[in-house]
Structures are given as structure tokens and as C-alpha cells.
Queue: 2 jobs
Job 1
Amino acid sequence: MPVLDIGEVAQRSGVPASTLRYYEEIGLISSLGRHGLRRQFDGDVLLKLSLVGMGKAAGFSLVEIAGMFGQNGQPDIPRALLHAKAGELQRQILDLRTLRDILRHVADCPAPTHLECPTFRALLKAASRKRLAYHPSRKRAGGALKTAG
Amino acid sequence: MPVLDIGEVAQRSGVPASTLRYYEEIGLISSLGRHGLRRQFDGDVLLKLSLVGMGKAAGFSLVEIAGMFGQNGQPDIPRALLHAKAGELQRQILDLRTLRDILRHVADCPAPTHLECPTFRALLKAASRKRLAYHPSRKRAGGALKTAG
DNA sequence: GTACGAGTTCAAGTCGACTTGAGGTCAAGC
DNA sequence: GCTTGACCTCAAGTCGACTTGAACTCGTAC
């Protein structure tokens, strides 16, 4: 794997240099060393950044994502934890499907105002009965993702 | 629909009164009026809060969610926007599926360190080629949702 | 050997979504 | 008619994830 200057990493990954520095500061990624002042990264950092991006998209915090890699920066993840995360994701996928279906129904439903549509209310009620309650916010990445180089 | 005191709404929905006040302040929900000082809500607010909860879980900001309801607090959503949101959700679901599969693979893969596993690298590469790049964080709700009363 | 541009540090600022704290008010019950 | 407890307002604080700005330092090209 080639050695990449921070600028190149930024350009190829789309992650701003300031963010790369921030990620290094919190131990999410690490640089090989410096060339003068400039950080040099192993090419693998690009894959790692993809992983980070996906983790963020999945709603994990940077700390959680960092926890998925070992202490030493190698991804060295307890299998059970991974299965647990996958399970979380699965539940989340089901939730999103429910919401998607609700949105689609509402889009096609002719009721004048959606709270008056019995189907809408039923979907909503079913959904809340199944699962949903208040949970204070956590961070997440946006829904629409850009294409990477 | 019965008229509910803020305390009752808080208790039934699991949303703290402080948050309900905040939501009213930003126009996400509205109260019928007051009994003395106390806000009184229409029972429908519970359904609306479910919807808000789902929207948050799906990664929409409170402003976006508010935008799904009309200016006057009635849910009065342009159909096209709804379809667009549903599409966003769909893409997000696919992303989460990819990540879930990656996690599952990693959990079962015998490679000593995951970045060395060719399958892992391939999955990651495919995923990033398909879609993933940097996007600064937006807010989202946690993955594991509590059951509502 | 000097200018340039891309990088550096460090502190502070921002944004969304709330929470917390201090001090005040009101309806209901005794 | 006074106490109590649940609510009120308003300002400020918090947390994660970054970004921004000022002042500085290199390696490279001329």
C-alpha cells in the first residue's frame, strides 16, 4: 500500500483534512508519521474511512466505531459485539421500513389531512405499539450519501 | 379525543415535559390552550409524537419533520416530497443492510485482523464504490428503541 | 535564498437537540 | 386561606462532531 499525504487522503476520501486531524486526535485513525509537518497515511486509511462512514450512516458514534477497532488501531472486534451491532442494525432496518411504508401510504392516501386517515392512524398506532418511544437524540450521518471517487 | 395535561402526555409518550415545551416552542406540536399555567394537549398529540419519534429514528431533523406537517400544524404533506423522503429512506435501508452484512461477515470471518481479510476488503471496497463518502454529521436517534406504553 | 502553498497547532466557535437551574405561579385539597 | 406539587419562564449549559481563524512552519520551485 502506498503512503499518502493528508491532502491526498482528503481528496480521495472526500473527508476534509481538518476532520482527518480530528479523527487522528480522537484515535479513530492514525498516521504513519510526518513528512516535514505533513501527516502521512497508509493507503489502508481509505478503507478505514469507508468503514467509519458506514458506521456513521448506521448511527454509531465515533467512539463506538473506534471501539470496533482494537486499541492499537487494528480492527480487532469481539465477535459477539459484532453480532449485537448487526442485530441493532437489523432492528433499525425494520423501523426504517415501517416509516418508509407509512410515508408511501401517506403519499398515496386521498385523505384530506393525514391524521384523519384511518389507515395512517392504524399504521402509526401499530408502529408505536410495536416499538417506538422517546429516546434522546444521538448523532448520525445524513441519509443521502455522495459517491466516493 | 380527550384533552390531556402536559404531565399526562409526558407520562404516556415517554417524552419529558421539558422536551414537549421545546417541541411546542419550535412549532413541532401545539397545545390547545392552558388550564391555569398548564398546557393542555389534544390526545392526537400522542400519535404525532410517534410520528416524530419515527422521523427522528429515520434520521430526519426536527425541522424536516416539522416540514412534513403543514404550516398550521396539520399534517399536510406534498406527495412528491413524501415520495422523495421514502426514496431516501430506501437508500438508507440498503446502506444499513450492507453494513449489517459486513458486520456479520466480520463476526464469522477467521482472518486474524479484519483489514487483512480479502472478503472484508472486497465488501468494503464494493460498498464504497457504490455509494459511501464523507458527509458531515446530522442528528439521529439511537438504534435500540424502547417499547412505548 | 526567497516566495508560495499546503500543511501545522491551539483555542474558540457552531449547530441541533435537549436539559438544568433559579425563581415564580396557580388549582386543588385540607 | 395556606400549603403543596406540578407546572411555568428564561437563560445558560451540555454533548458530539466538526469547522474556523490566527499565527506559524515546512518542502519545493524558481
Note: Residues 79-137 of chain A form one domain.
Job 2
Amino acid sequence: MSARFRDLAAELRAAITDGTYPPGSHLPSESELSERHGVSRGTVRQTFALLRADGLIASHQGARRTVLAAPRVQSFAELRSFSLWARSLGETPSGRKVALVRREASPGERDALGEDRIYHLTRVRLLSGRPVMIERTAYVDRVGALVAGIDTDTESICERLAELGIVFAHAEHTLDAVPADEEDAALLGCAPGTALLRERRRTTDPDGRPLEWSEDRYLGDAVAVTVHNSVAASVLERQKS
Amino acid sequence: MSARFRDLAAELRAAITDGTYPPGSHLPSESELSERHGVSRGTVRQTFALLRADGLIASHQGARRTVLAAPRVQSFAELRSFSLWARSLGETPSGRKVALVRREASPGERDALGEDRIYHLTRVRLLSGRPVMIERTAYVDRVGALVAGIDTDTESICERLAELGIVFAHAEHTLDAVPADEEDAALLGCAPGTALLRERRRTTDPDGRPLEWSEDRYLGDAVAVTVHNSVAASVLERQKS
DNA sequence: CCTGGCGACTTGTATAGCCAAGTGACAACA
DNA sequence: TGTTGTCACTTGGCTATACAAGTCGCCAGG
């Protein structure tokens, strides 16, 4: 169906997950896999490149590849979708729309999205009934028009947009800590000054065109963000604010 | 010197940086580059794979590759090394060792590092004289022994360890927000309860063996962390704490 | 028992070529 | 004018081969 090396990667991922190749064990050699699956060595190498980018395996010239860890599911999608993430934890996600307006873009929003008019959505997200984050998102006009047609309290925006053909491909996140202001405190039901984890996110489609610009604030004692990086696939930067 | 495709990637990165190929422009085709540089098309494709993993270019079947953004320097190394990062901002990094002891590992440390005895270092890091973070790091015995021989107030631990043959290859970071406790406040010179960005980090060598386990706390209004991810090279996970 | 060297195996890098599938510009046509 | 079809070009996917360089086990010799 899809490309052969993707199928093979999925197969190996599954084999790692089900314990055929536990962490610390060695994978079959390139030539063995190529013979067993009837593909060339080049295709097997493309497969390994995928697994390596995910941090699943280590490789060294001369030695067989080593399994480092079991695969984690869908990290990119999970990071963008509160609903997906919540369900993966066995929690029930919900939301409460505070406001959705179409308005002039602020200078920061115009800078991030490159448009003069934007849709702005404020939502409180709850995990099993408890408020844990505030979402303040500016959508590009084209996307915002679609968002306006979604029942944001019951549906997953991210999943609906995917069905409508909006593809989120890249995201840049900036994380820092801020004290809760009066509005945050009222929406989250915490004391003003409580430590919040702030995530500012700019998401683009596969061509690098901006789709959304969001500032989310999480209750510090309810949510953490984890990042995995490696010299091979480097993706992080520290920044002064 | 190094592999041809790495040289070519460095050359293209430089060309993007210096404006030869500004963001939004199109790169030469694979065949043109292969001919111009006297390499095969396969080698050119390896080059593009590197640039793509860094989020620098977009590619589509049938159309030439598009430049998305200018390259950022050294993200992985910068994230690990406070000194490198500070110098890249034009600031003067410094540190003050609070304590370095060899002791029994706590349960959490034993879990992260897999050893019973560890070295534990507490340091305050300053940016141009102002304290901005507290570093509390547990080193695996082998590495800690080397750290003990480093003048931690003047040298960069990370750079010294690299010279001594310790290679940091993968890191997993967990980020959340916490209020400053009494000790934090005293070390950073802020009020207790101030919002701090907490980064817990586990770093391993290329084979996945743990090297260090650190809990760093940043002044929220002085430092932020940025993360870049994409569907192609997915590296992030949100986590309940 | 330990050391050194040999050799089979494995991964890294590079080459050359093939076909499929998508893009984009241009020409012909209605 | 607007549409449609064609065609050169480009990237995606795959095969086959070659050699370099590193690893690991094994065996001979001290």
C-alpha cells in the first residue's frame, strides 16, 4: 500500500513493542532483513533511518543495531491535540469556549501569521472536570472560518480540521514560566501568582505556511511537557526572553 | 574531510544563511547539484534528508525543494551547555558551585541512572552577573569522577567532558512550572513562590547508557525554551505529572 | 591465562540506473 | 478568453554493486 520502507518500519516498531526485540537486544543485519523481506539493502537502510530519527535504535559501524527503547505513540499529534493526549491517559477531555471573535491582528499575531485579520479563540480545557489549561489561539483566516463552524465544546478542533483537509506539519514551541494573572486565576480556579507553564506555539502546514499561533497556560502541578532530542535529529533551542 | 553529503549540507546551510537561497526560494534540482558538485544523485538526496530533518526545507514530488527558514546554530549542544548558549547570546556565563558530593543515589536517581553511588553537583548559573538558574545534577560514577577534577566555577563542564571523550547523544527533557522554595529563593535572589521553569533532564551516550540526571530551575522571566517538531521527525510528548 | 592477529560479518558512503508520480509551462483548441 | 492536453523536468521509491572502516569471535602463540 504505502512505501515498502514505511511498511517495514511499522513492522519492526511492532516487533519491538511486542517484545520480539526488547530494549538492549540486537536487530537482524541489513542483509538478513533485505533477503527475508525481498527488498534491497537500500530500502532496509531507509527503514532504519526512520527508526533512528525516532530514537528507537542506535547504530555503529561494524556492529548490529541495538534497540534503545520501545516506541512512543504519535508524539506530534498528541502534542497538538489536547483531546488525543487526554484520551491516551484514560482521562475525559472537555472544553469550555470563553470567546471566539474575528478581529484585527495584534502586531505579534500579524508577525506570526502574516495576516491582518484573524480569528481568536479562548478556551478553558478540563481533565475529568478539573480545569488544567487556558488556550488562547489565533487562527489564520482560512482556518478560523472552519473553526467557527465547529462546536468547540464537544468536538476536537484538531481532529475536525484534519478531516477538513488542514494538515499540521511543523510546530515551534516556546516554553517558560509565568505567574497567573487575575483572568488566569479566575478561569483556572487557582490563586493569582500561581506558577503556570506557558507554551507559545506556532504551527505551519507542510509548506511552512502559518496556520495558528497559540498561547497556552497550564497549571504547573497538573501538566508537564517532555521533549526528546538527539545529536542526530536536533530540534531544540534555548532562548532568552 | 568528513563525508561528502555532510560537506554538501554544510555548504547549502551556509548558502541559505548568507542569502543565496532566502526563505521561500527554490533550491537547485538534485541532478543540477549532483552534476555541479561531481557527486551522484543518491549523495545529494542524503544531503537533502539532513536539511529536511532540521526543518530547513520542504519537498514535494514533482516540484523543486523550497527553503523554509534560515538554520539555527547548534541546537542540541546549546541546549546542554549553558556556557555555549550564553556566549551565543553575547552574554558572559559564569557559575558558582554550591556543593559537589559523592553519595548514595536516591531512589529516583537510581532509577534514572541505574547506579547506587553517584556524584551530585549543585550550581548557580549567572548571566552577566545575574543569577538565572539553579542546576542540580546527578552524574553516573564514571562521569562524576571526571567532573570532580574540573574547576566548575570557571570551566564549562560540558566542553571539558567532550574533550575527555564523554559524548552526550540523546536527552529527554521534562518541563513544568514550580514555585520557588526557600532554598531556590535564597540562591536566585527572588521571592519564595516566584514562578520557575523546571527542566528535568536525562542524558545518555550514543548507546543509550545514562550519563546524567539533572533538575534545573530557571527564573521564568529570564529564560525560555523553544522546541521545534514536525510530523516527519517527531520528538515530543505531553505528560501528566 | 592473556595477548595479538586474522577473518567473517556488518554498517557507512558512494555510484549508476530504472520507473512511477506529480508539477508547471506552453501550445493547441473551443 | 478560458480550457485542455502534452511534455520536459523533478522528486519519490527502489535495485544493484562496490569499497572503506569498524566489530567481534576465534585461534595460535607466548
Note: The longest strand of chain B covers residues 93-104.
